[in-house]
Design brief:
mainly alpha, 2 domains, globular
Length: 531
């Protein structure tokens, strides 16, 4: 392994004040600072990039969290009126674009500066949101999503590279935990603002609002001081003077990817990213189709619900205050992370990185299985809590670990590599998850089948005769049955939970591979201090 030996300090100035410790890139775990000591050790640039990521995620999840609903709602409700399978094709290209670009261009941030790439990325993302507002069709939304994906791809390495260069191995666990926590402030608020906008102002307001929000990062860039800039400029000058060779970025990237401990790590997390994004890609539709949230509202506020606008906003409720919308259920995840991630980060800092990731993955598997086991709103909320705990133990550690073992002059490049498993795993899930949902769990599909069984001709229930999203309403009208009773009938006569069980099985495989990888790198670290 070509990592920095323990006995050879790396003389790199970070924020022009600190010299990274000698164990900066070793595979072995490094003892972390305590909770408050770690928090107090974080410098100003860390909080600035946390703020920029929070703004970016607020805008991003203001679209991403409602994209499933926007795409699958019928045209009569100002949606795009497409099936989950068609939406899955959009997700495939969205994830492909968002994850493929940084695998090859993460090194640009190292070479040309984090500040420049963050600024360019923000401008691209603004255009993406505006295209979604200007072109209210499936292909218009598709085009906007591609710009948004490209902007996100350029944005991530610069932000995360800055975070790595402004922290060290002794405070990295807390740094990534707090970073993840600030991110989820945006991830929590964004969907709630989007819900208000789509309910009161219409879908274009969702996209215009997020275009305005992301522009706040131009203001934050004015206060941003790029860590390692002097070192980067000095290296560029040495290269121009012919004193130091520079290989093409592609050649450098391929040389790094040949390192076994990096390649295997990325390969394992391809499987992890095949099950993790189900929360955003499929769960909103699952909640809308199957989970009756009215009983929980009645437990909290009484049989009439609530008219309090604050509670309606915070809980993601409908205009009548009688149901929690899908965004409100999914938003439990961001809310829990927003308030508790630093506590999980402190707990995770006491574990080996791979142990924390393995434990978190097991919790996520349990949550996915619970979604499949029942459509009770109480169980859905419990599953969200368990999923969020697992995410906090696993997801921040994924980037923290790869950032810690990366060479000091290739931090953004290695963070770019971290998008490779997202590229493969999420791209597969983005197409496969919605497609499996249409097979095993689609309420619209089941309603069409029952309409035929009730006497309608097959030609009357085709997508041309009966638009996507309208079948269940038609079934209620034809049968005269109560919607809740019909929902229960459809759920009881189909294997709705099978979609979740399939991806839970993928999670089990991921947990086993992470555990085996952890044992392997422990042996490497013990065998050679310089591994």
């Amino acid at each position: 392994m070509s990592l920095t030996p323990h006995n050879e300090p790396t003389q790199v100035i970070r924020d022009n004040t600190t010299t990274p410790p000698a164990d900066e890139t070793t595979l072995g775990d490094v003892k972390q600072l305590g909770l408050w000591a770690a928090i107090m050790s974080l410098g100003g640039v860390f909080w600035i990039v946390g703020g920029m990521e929070m703004v970016e995620r607020l805008a991003y999840y203001g679209v991403r969290a409602v994209a499933t609903l926007y795409a699958t709602r019928p045209l009569s409700e100002q949606g795009l009126g497409v099936t989950m399978t068609t939406f899955g094709t959009l997700l495939l290209f969205w994830t492909l674009t968002q994850s493929l670009i940084p695998v090859f261009t993460g090194g640009f941030s190292d070479r040309y500066g984090y500040k420049l790439t963050i600024g360019v990325a923000t401008a691209i993302k603004v255009l993406g949101y505006l295209l979604m507002a200007w072109l209210p069709t499936y292909w218009g939304f598709f085009t906007g999503a591609m710009f948004l994906a490209a902007g996100t791809a350029v944005f991530k390495p610069g932000i995360q590279g800055t975070l790595i260069r402004s922290t060290n191995r002794r405070n990295s666990s807390m740094a990534w935990g707090i970073f993840y926590q600030t991110v989820n402030i945006g991830g929590w608020i964004g969907p709630l603002i989007a819900l208000y906008n789509r309910s009161h102002l219409g879908w274009p307001a969702v996209f215009y609002t997020n275009a305005a929000i992301i522009c706040l990062n131009f203001v934050l860039l004015l206060t941003y001081r790029e860590p390692g800039k002097a070192e980067r400029l000095a290296r560029r000058q040495r290269i121009r003077d012919g004193l130091e060779p520079q290989r093409p970025l592609v050649a450098e990237a391929l040389a790094e990817l040949k390192k076994p401990h990096l390649f295997l790590y990325l390969l394992i997390f391809v499987f992890w990213w095949m099950m993790f994004p189900m929360l955003w890609d499929v769960l909103p539709k699952y909640v809308e189709d199957w989970v009756n949230t009215a009983p929980m509202v009645q437990q909290l506020f009484g049989p009439e619900g609530t008219s309090n606008p604050v509670w309606k906003f915070l809980l993601g409720m409908d205009a009548h205050g009688q149901n929690i919308q899908p965004e409100g259920i999914v938003n439990i995840n961001a809310c829990m992370i927003m308030f508790t991630c630093f506590l999980f980060a402190n707990f995770g800092s006491k574990l080996r990185a791979t142990t924390s990731m393995c434990l978190g993955t097991v919790l996520i598997v349990i949550a996915l299985a619970l979604f499949g086991a029942s459509h009770s709103v109480g169980l859905a909320v419990l599953a969200m809590v368990i999923f969020s705990a697992g995410e906090m133990l696993a997801s921040p550690k994924f980037c923290e670990y790869i950032g810690n073992i990366a060479p000091l002059d290739k931090k953004a490049m290695w963070i770019g590599f971290a998008h490779a498993p997202i590229l493969l795993g999420w791209t597969i899930e983005g197409k496969l998850g919605p497609a499996l949902y249409d097979v095993f769990s689609s309420k619209d599909t089941f309603a069409r089948q029952l309409l035929v069984e009730s006497g309608l001709a097959p030609a009357q229930v085709t997508e041309q005769a009966l638009p996507i999203g309208e079948a269940f309403k038609k079934l209620v009208a034809v049968t005269g049955e109560n919607p809740e009773q019909l929902t229960q009938l459809l759920y009881a006569t189909h294997h709705v939970g099978m979609t979740w069980y399939i991806f839970a099985a993928v999670g089990v495989a991921s947990a086993v591979m992470i555990w085996l990888y952890g044992r392997w790198v422990q042996k490497l670290a013990r065998r050679s201090p310089s591994s």
